[in-house]
Amino acid sequence: MEIFRNRNFVKLFYAALFSQMGTTIGNMAFAFYLLDHFSHQPYYATLAELMYSLPTILVFFLVGVVADRFDRKKVAENCDWIRAGLTCFLFVALFLNSIPLVFLVLFIRSAVTKFFFPAENSLVQGILNREQYAQAAGLNQMLFSIFLVFGVGIGAAIYNTIGIYGAVFVDLISFVISGLLIRFCNIPISARLPNGKLEWKNININSTLSDFKGGITYIIKNRLLTVLVFGFFIFGIVNGAFAILPMFKMKYELTPDNYEWYASFFAISLGLGLLVGSGISTVIASKFKPHQLMVYPIFMTSLLIFFLGFTNKVSLFLIIVFFIGTCLGPINVAIGGWIPKIVHPKLMGRVSGWIDPLMMFAQSITLGIIAFLFPKIIETVDYLYYGMAIIILLVSLFYAFTLPKLSNAFEEKEKRRQRKQRTTKASPKINSI
User: Fold this and answer.
1) What residue spans of 343-380 are helical by DSSP H?
2) Which of 77, 111, 412, 424 has its CA 20 to 30 A from that of 296?
3) Cα separation of 299 and 339, whole Å?
4) Region (Disordered): which ranges (predicted)?
5) Helix 314-342 crosses helix 133-183 at what angle (to 10 degrees)?
6) What would the pLDDT profile of 54-81 be if each residue is shown by its tens digit?
7) Which parts of the chain register pLDDT below 50?
8) CA distance 315 to 325
9) What is the chain's percent helix, strand, coil content, to nearest 5?
10) pLDDT tens for residues 99-123?
11) Domains present along the chain, CATH in parentheses
């Protein structure tokens, strides 16, 4: 594809790949390490998960502001160097067998990771043309799907072959490679500093909060953008439900004796579906309008989730999950390719910075509702699937009524912008004559 002829994109793509590899392998290997060495204290594994998620709450209002106000290339690159340095400290913490110190390093490293992707995502917007945004979103979704499918297996294989120290060393090398790839990118200053150079003396709490508020205001004032960002909230609901409902379905209905084994197959089925769906949508994205890649797959997802509640066979359950993943792929590609076209480059970081906390908020709400309802109020897990299917169905109807109109208005605006650009380019020639 033409997109891979862009050397800057190729380097950023592989930088994101190695960055994700460093994060995933270390997290998985460390989970196995805790379960092996502290099998009588399983809450350690839970605390480790909290070390990965809690930093979002503390830094979510900063990540977008940093990506917009500072040099995006340096932000992404320095995230890799800092995480590489923290990984060295992780070696020391493991050698001292100090679990509190290990948790502290993991917490800080996870907080630094939150700054990487908004900056990297904003750089991608600056080096591609508008027609390539959907392809880039599809490739990033495929990357996520690969780690969803193989992440646990890769982490387990590395941990079992070269141990926890070897896994941490792979982390270190991954971050170093990612940092070097970003350093060798030749990205124009307009993409790196769309808001101009910022002086340190101008940085304070008031300016940070003002920028953060500006990002929220920008999203709310743009109705199409608001509706699309709401899509990530829906992804959070799906993530929260699928984080726990498949295990409930396996344990209490389908296969009580082997639910752990088949729960892992759920992740593989979903990941393969996402991989296939993302690959297909990357190829066909230019042939369909973005709202078509959202409305129909969301509607199909609601029906498939409804069927999950009916099924009483593990094989059929996993097949349906695969097709759900196939439907989710185009949705994410459509949103990921549409948002860069809508958002001004000066505010891309602040908009991207809202995605992760919004998804986590929806995921937390969903998990809380499930914990409250099951099994005290709702005794059968199937009803949870039916309720989730109804919610997704309502979302598809909402998008069916709103997105076509908003999409047409956006396309008209785009046509006016393009006519204005052509007129601007042609005017010097007219004047010279």
Assistant:
1) 348-352, 355-373
2) 412
3) 21
4) 414-433
5) 80
6) 787 788 778 888 888 889 999 999 999 9
7) 429-433
8) 16
9) 90, 0, 10
10) 889 889 988 998 999 899 888 888 9
11) 1-203 (1.20.1250.20), 210-410 (1.20.1250.20)
